[in-house]
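Table 4 source record.
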Amino acid sequence: MKNTYPRPPMFLTLLIAALVMAGCGIVPVKKYYLLNYIPMALQNRLNETPYPSIIRLKDLSIEEAYARPQIVYRQNAYQLQFYFYQVWAVKPARMINDLIFKHLVAVDIARGIVRRYDGGEKPDFELSGTIEAIDEYDSDQVWFAHMALRFQLTRTSDGQTVYSRRFDKRKRVFKNDPQSVVKEMSSIMEFIMNQVVGDLDQVLDSANGQRGVQ
């Protein structure tokens, strides 16, 4: 005689199936991040008023490895990895160029800051450069935010480079999560732009003095 076992009620079977499906169906949610800070006025400027120059900000180019929405992280110098659910809300190049423009306008360093030349008044200088790195660096239990940018200022009248500087900054993150990394990246970006504005203050002061002597 074949053994038989009592079957559970149909509603219980359906309930168990629903719970199993719910547990298996949890999908991680993408999180979107932005670099952000409030530009502060440069202390001890050589000239308290805007310089009588127009600067065109030519969008900085970006290294191909970082020209993607996924936040990049690395554990050594030879391998890049990419978060899938931790992404930039805006393309990194656009995000950084927007921050640079916002900072230059906010500190009122020159008579005009423009991003495009549309046949109006010709800019006196062009600021350009390259975004070489923007990543999270994981070293054992210690995380770092890392950014590397290169800037160049060209005098448009003769194409002469009057300023060039490279920044490569790493800052420790004390809470190991992407949000904290982005926060420290924002701090690095603010530091770099404060340095750039200080450098421009000296370059434009010198250019203005030379112009006044002529």
